[in-house]
Input
Amino acid sequence: MGGLIVECALLGLVLTASSPIAIMGVLVMMPSKPHGMRSAAAFVAGWACVLLAIGLLGILGPSGLDFSNGSTASTVTFGLQLGLGIASLGYAIFRYRRLRARGAPPPPKWLARAGTVPPLAAFGLGALLPYYVVAIACVTEILNANVSVGGGLVAYLAFLLVTTGLLASPLIVVATSRDRSPERLAAMQHWLDRNSGMLITLLVALIGLLLITRGGLGLLQS
Output
């Protein structure tokens, strides 16, 4: 059980690290007037709520099925992992080739307007941005671990707390260090501006390889 919680927490880290545009959205919203901090908090809440919904549906929905090794349900989840891994790796290769040919793409258009987004729209925007493949991968790992529903929810909570906490890190910086927060936030945004394109590509490729490995091995052993 402890290993599963650590694995889910690491997946939470990977999810936020592979979504630097989401962190940049929080950074752009925060200083805007008159509702910048509320919009940034609503953005983070939207991210957390959609991931929570995925976890609850994925863990509670099939709670009566048998996910022991060799079962039909476990074979389906391993096949899902393999398919998601192939799709993620293919997307990473596409991004890498585009980066090599054209350089880093411009930031998405919504990012330039993020400072004017009201809280309700920010909530909806936050719900649209997570790389859902990682959340689905986390759910399949929990199901294949064949733990109790309560244990599965605890493991998924670790995933949710890590990914949401990392996305909310600019808000945490402001809350805990108001004197130095502008310099720290500016440094964070500058680094993300320079490295977000390659960071996304590398982490999506890593996610794809991990899912292909987990799904492929699971299918071979089932």
Q: What stands out?
A: The radius of gyration is 18 Å. Residues 2-215 form one domain. The chain has a mean pLDDT of 83.
